[in-house]
């Protein structure tokens, strides 16, 4: 069940859902707007030109209130907000259609597990022929919350728990299958 603005407001007031910093007008009828933070990371060039899943990837990270995303460029960014989800609530990250119509894709894995705490890393990609200027504080997407039918037996406590800033891939930490 997708949560309504009424339920979101109630959870924020009770402290069962935490979002900081947040303005009340970020709450929409069935979502909460997320704003762009000021941390951006790009993958550093590899001597071989190949990224492998079993080795740590190096990133160049900058803090800036403005970032110019070039055509066909990929960058990690972060939300301004820090989230704390209870163990019976999950969320979906969605881009804003007005930005998608400009060629800005928010390629987030799209899922926030119950129990997650941290800023959300966003994967931004510019499919336009023109550069896109990104500014910290700009609303770039929304979180749609859904209540689970029961508390999670194993709430999220993974490698991205508590993350702040544009956090690079930690796929190299995954166990072999």
Automatic annotation (TrEMBL):
GO molecular function, one term: nucleotide binding
Sites where the protein binds dCTP: 96-101, 113, 121-123, 142, 156, 159, 163
Keyword Cytoplasm: no
Stored Pfam families: DCD
Keyword presence, Isomerase: no
UniProt entry keywords in alphabetical sequence: Hydrolase, Nucleotide metabolism, Nucleotide-binding
Residue numbers marked as site, Important for bifunctional activity: 110-111
Cross-referenced InterPro entries: dCTP_deaminase, dUTPase-like_sf, dUTPase_trimeric
Active site (catalytic residues): 123 (proton donor/acceptor)
Assigned EC number: 3.5.4.30
Annotated catalysed reactions: dCTP + 2 H2O = dUMP + NH4(+) + diphosphate
GO biological process, one term: dUMP biosynthetic process
Broad enzyme group: hydrolase
Biochemical pathway: Pyrimidine metabolism; dUMP biosynthesis; dUMP from dCTP: step 1/1
Assembly and oligomerization: Homotrimer.
Function: Bifunctional enzyme that catalyzes both the deamination of dCTP to dUTP and the hydrolysis of dUTP to dUMP without releasing the toxic dUTP intermediate.
Family, per entry: Belongs to the dCTP deaminase family.
The protein's name in its UniProt record: dCTP deaminase, dUMP-forming
Organism lineage string: Bacteria, Bacillati, Bacillota, Clostridia, Lachnospirales
């Amino acid at each position: 069940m997708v949560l309504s603005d009424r339920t979101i407001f109630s959870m924020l007031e009770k402290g069962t859902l935490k979002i900081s910093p947040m303005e009340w007008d970020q709450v929409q009828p069935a979502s909460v707007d997320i704003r762009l933070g000021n941390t951006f990371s790009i993958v550093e060039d590899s001597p071989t030109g190949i990224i492998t899943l079993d080795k740590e990837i190096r990133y160049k990270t900058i803090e800036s209130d403005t970032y110019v995303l070039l055509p066909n460029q990929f960058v990690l960014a972060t939300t301004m907000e820090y989230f704390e989800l209870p163990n019976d609530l999950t969320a979906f990250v969605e881009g804003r259609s007005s930005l998608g119509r400009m060629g800005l894709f928010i390629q987030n894995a799209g899922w926030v597990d119950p129990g997650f705490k941290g800023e959300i890393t966003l994967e931004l990609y510019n499919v336009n022929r023109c550069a896109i200027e990104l500014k910290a504080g700009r609303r770039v997407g929304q979180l749609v919350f859904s209540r689970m039918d029961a508390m999670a037996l194993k709430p999220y406590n993974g490698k991205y728990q508590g993350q702040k800033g544009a956090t690079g891939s930690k796929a190299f930490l995954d166990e072999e299958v």
